[in-house]
Write a structure and sequence with these properties.
Elements lengths: L3 E4 L1 H5 L7 H9 L3 H16 L5 H11 L8 H5 L2 H4 L3 H12 L3 E6 L3 H10 L7 E4 H4 L6 H11 L6 E5 L2 H9 L3 E4 L6 H9 L3
Helix pairs in contact: 2-3, 3-4
């Protein structure tokens, strides 16, 4: 019996995964795409788990690309479309909570994006919110899921985890969690409801 539902944010609670930050870094700052992608992947991985700050990221950027054009730094991390939840998904969370189901967020995200979502109040809807930038853990690291399991106080098989990336649901499944790969956000509420109700 499912007693908790754990949601990824981007691509699950929201209808899009957001912008390609490497492409935006390249376009906005006039850097060759491959160089921008290489730098972004290395530095953002550290930022996402809180190993460096945003200031550290941009300091390293200035050293690596001293001739870069001036650009909008905030826009690299923040895409409003990817931060705002789908209304039907938000309604589902309220419905689940009203029926006694624990709801949680387990998300890989950057500090500035997480702060924007938190300021909007969207995280307040959930019982538990676990973010890579605040825990130092990142999906598909098994310890991130174990922290979530511990936080709910439930057995893994009592938890449904939804993510739009197969590698992340596979990692959760290995720990015994029930999983659902999000492929069509329009059909997600009915699929989740069916699983929770045991249909």
């Amino acid at each position: 019996m499912i007693k908790a539902v754990v949601f990824d944010w981007f691509g699950v609670m929201t209808p899009t995964r957001g912008l390609d930050s490497s492409q935006k870094l390249s376009a906005d700052f006039g850097i060759p795409l491959e160089q921008a992608r290489s730098f972004f992947l290395e530095q953002s991985a550290l930022l996402k788990i809180g190993k460096i700050t945003e200031q550290d990221f941009w300091s390293a950027f200035e050293v690596m690309f001293p001739d870069a054009l001036p650009g909008d730094k905030d826009s690299i991390w923040l895409d409003i479309r990817a931060s705002t939840p789908d209304p039907n998904m938000l309604e589902l969370v309220h419905t689940l909570k009203s029926s006694g189901i624990i709801t949680a967020v387990l998300s890989n995200t950057f500090p500035i994006t997480a702060n924007a979502i938190r300021r909007s109040g969207y995280y307040d809807v959930f019982d538990t919110v676990l973010l890579s930038s605040e825990t130092g853990l990142c999906k598909p690291n098994a310890d991130f899921y174990k922290l979530c399991i511990k936080d709910t106080g439930l057995k893994p098989e009592e938890i449904l985890f939804i993510d739009d990336q197969q590698k992340n649901t596979d990692a959760a499944k290995e720990l015994g969690m029930d999983v659902l790969v999000a492929k069509d956000i329009a059909r997600l509420p009915s699929k989740i409801t069916a699983i929770v109700s045991g249909e």
